[in-house]
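User: Continuing from earlier, I have the next pair ready.

Assistant: Great, send them over.

User: Here they are, in order.

Assistant: Folding the first of the pair now:
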Amino acid sequence: MQTQSPVRIRISWPAGNLTADLDDTPTTQALTKALPLVSTARTWGEEVYFDTGIAVPRETNARQVVEPGTVAFWTDGDALALPYGPTPISRGDECRLASPCNILGAIDGDPRLLATVRDGDPVRVELA
């Protein structure tokens, strides 16, 4: 039986870009159909998030506390959430999202590169 290879995306903003590998989930499939997409970055503590224009239900494995560099989908805001450090509701150094999010995958390399994203920056997501 052949396993589905992960989906690779590129996320770009004026000061940089990074790639991420996404697992084959219903949310990843919905996101892939919407690519490429252009949005406006928002920051919340050490998290970047932005509207995707897609709406999906919360998956059973949704989590609120994740590792830095997790690619998450915030179902309450129809947004991709990219945490790289503590948010205003974190306890200690954890990455605590606003509410449980669908887990899609992980960023390649150092997620702290997201610190160069400024609130209001244009952001583009496309297949890599």
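And the other member of the pair:
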Amino acid sequence: MKRSVAWRLPGAVAALAVVAATGVALSLPETASAAGSATGFAAENGGTTGGAGGETVRATTGTEIHQALCSRESTDTPLIIEVEGTINHGNTSDVDGDSCDTDDDRIELKGISNVSIIGVGSGATFDQIGIHIRDSSNIIIQNVTIQNVKKSGSPTSNGGDAIGMESDVRNVWVDHTTLIASGGEDEGYDGLFDLKNNTQYVTLSYSVLRDSGRGGLIGSSESDRSNGYVTFHHNLYQNIDSRTPLLRGGVAHMYNNYYADVHESGINSRAGGQAKVENNYFQDSRNVLGTFYTDEPGYWEVSGNIFDNVTWSEPGDETSPAGPDPESTTSVSIPYSYELDDAECVPAIVARTAGAGTGLAESDGSC
């Protein structure tokens, strides 16, 4: 069941698929603009609407995505790009134009605003090629899979990040995505979801992050504390070594996420970071919350979480786990409305709603 914290829910969408008895959701129709409304911190600071109200363009290659960006009247002309098929290095090239600044080894959203990238059908796949957001605002990414983006080896893209944001980024909503690697740094991969250098008002919702050494970070160093106001809800973190996420400075809100098989450390709040951690389910994992690998502490407020077969390290000079009996070390104020699912229902809810190709299904609060 849901526990009401406030009244606002994401907008209902007629195009949502009905989840079958097997738990597998049907796909979106072959034409689909962004469904629902931005939640969490992405709904603050004026909100995140992406390309709503703008032209809708279909793209089947990375070059066509760049062409759509470069064909706009200006860098802030609203645009919805519906993507289908597989985007890779072989079909992605740099395109010139006054309303874009693209590159040929990544999907580049640089110096722009008011854009939605939406996978249609069962969702598009970005294979070994990442999405880079820089000096941009009001961006939506929805119903896509991004996999095996490398920073070393061949081919490389986006510094090894599936989705990376940096340099004065504002208001980004990433929803119903699947972000996957095939190993850690030794295998050439970096983070799945990285925010740095003054990136704020971001929400990651109903997404799957798995099979990676690093889930993601907020802040690239102990001195990079200008990031924050990030919400994570109804996501699955599975088979991750660490960083679910790493939070340096700033505020982050994690609720109704399912963390399974986190090997080394999970939510790593450090360098003054403040994490509000509510009604999550942590299972078969280690050090899922605390300050790790630094002597500069972070803080957390905890309530309603379930810790199922979670182990904890002993405290040390650079290790300050929140457990084995996590208690709040700060109080974090959240300005937006939201509802909480019971933590015991989170694994079942996330299993049927998170990731690309789930018909943009959302929680109805039931197990």
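Worth noting for the second one:
The longest strand covers residues 208-218. The CA atoms of residues 44 and 131 lie 23 Å apart.
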